[in-house]
Amino acid sequence: MNSFKNINHIWEYLDKIPKFQDKGAVAANFELGNITKFCTQMGDPQNRFSSIHVAGTNGKGTTCHLLEAVYLQAGYKTGLFTSPHLLRYNERIRISGKDIDDEKILEFFQKYEGELRNSNLTYFEISTALAFWIFAEEKVDIAIIETGLGGRLDSTNIITPKVSVITSIGLDHQDILGNTEVEITKEKAGIIKENIPVVLGNISEENERVISEVARSKNADIYTASELDPVLVKGLFSIPEQKISIQTKLKEEVNKWNVCAVYQIKEILSHEFPVSKEKFIETVSAFKGAPGRFEQLFSDKEWYFSGAHNTQALHSTLQTISEISDEEPVIIFSLMRDKMSSEVLNLLEQYENKYFFELPGERSASHNELSKHVKAQIITENNQKSILKEFESALVIFTGSFYFYSTVKRWVI
Questions:
Q1: pLDDT score for 406
Q2: Local structure of residue 252 (DSSP, 8 states)
Q3: Contact status, residue 188 vs residue 173, Cβ threshold 8 Å
Q4: Which one, of 61, 55, 44, 84, lies nearest residue 193 by Cα?
Q5: Which pLDDT score is estimated for 27?
Q6: Whether this model's pTM surpasses 0.90
Q7: What are the distances in angstroms from CA 318 to CA 236, 278, 331?
Q8: Cα distance between residue 124 and residue 157, in whole Å
Q9: pLDDT score recorded for residue 176
Q10: Of the residues 29, 117, 264, 353, which has the fewest C-beta atoms closer than 10 A?
Q11: Distance between CA 214 and CA 207 in Å, rounded?
């Protein structure tokens, strides 16, 4: 039956599957039956490696990439599964810091073509199953698994990790996860397993109470970043109680919760996966952040890409801009239609010099829709060169949807 002769056949196959990026909730499947059945047919690869499971509204990516860096630096063979990809599909799955190669993807699709064609898996479910299979095949020591949406019914939630992590809770994907933070918290707390410790990052007291109830019912111990009172000021991260002080390359203050959560995880797993304090400090000081999270695009220009697709993330990005410079920034942004909340629009409205890029796809906000709420000039593929040339020496922030990243990278190469 083998119709996957080369990698291009796989890209064609995946391109035909509806994606959340384009279609939103209709492209997702919020139940675990299909992914469970498919993984059973593969021999349950998700049970053949140790893992850390990371959920949260914001901070997941940074936490996952830092965990990978810490365990890799300490000498472990790591797996990392994140989404969405920014430039190429292979980024979603990494082994010891390197994107998987096309040959491994091809091997999976050729081996399980029959099962795939009969499974009706979503794009994200296929990616999840592929990651589980590769991590098992590669015999990783520890894999860091990022949820897609929510937690309880996320297709990654068939693993039994060594630690569950919830980085933050905010209003996002309300059409899927619930209209209130409490409802969203319950969904994210769905990754908590019996007797498996839970680490919390930037979580409010009210949301922590909700998570604590779930954790108690599962006999899961809770560790919080807040109990260590982490500080991050102008890149200097510290946990005074542990006498830890590290000069980092991180710009957003909110990252203190992510770094502290990673420290807590390191301590919890110290018997099984020991990492010295020195290795931790060395890794954090060298860590540049996750791709697309306040990423400086040029070493000699104050141009940054900071994916910020909800109120919490955008507020953090804009706050950091004001700390970097007194200069009024140029904001170049894109949005998905379902992210056009009044809070996000109000945050953007305060800036004078702003440009909107209309991404392709049904889910993307159009300039006509945006113009009813926010006055922004239009930047397009046709005029971007002349516009960007004006701002060579300016502070420029490309922000909004992570799906804007590949376009921006192409513009600035």
A1: 93
A2: -
A3: no
A4: 55
A5: 46
A6: yes
A7: 20, 33, 10
A8: 13
A9: 47
A10: 117
A11: 11
What is the per-residue DSSP string for 32-66? SHHHHHHHHHTT-GGGSSEEEEEE-SSSHHHHHHH
- Compute the Cα dihedral for 281, 286, 289, 294 and give only its sign: positive
Place of tokens 């997941």: 60
**Residue 69, helix vs strand vs coil:** helix
398: exposed, middle or buried (C-beta count within 10 Å: 0-12, 13-18, 19+)? Answer: buried
Domains of the chain: 7-286 (3.40.1190.10), 295-412 (3.90.190.20)
Q: Identify whether the C-beta of residue 266 lies closer than 8 Å to the C-beta of residue 280.
A: yes
- What residues of the chain score a pLDDT lower than 50? 22-27, 173-176, 178
Distance CA(204)–CA(55), nearest Å, equals: 15
Distance between CA atoms of residues 15 and 131, nearest Å: 18
Interatomic CA distance for residues 123 and 104, integer angstroms: 17
Q: What are the tens digits of pLDDT across the range 337-395?
A: 877 788 888 888 888 999 999 998 888 888 888 888 888 999 999 999 999 999 999 99
**Both ends of the chain: CA-CA distance in Å?**
42
Retrieve residue 135's tokens: 């991590």
pLDDT per residue as tens digits for the range 258-291: 999 999 999 999 999 999 999 999 999 999 999 9
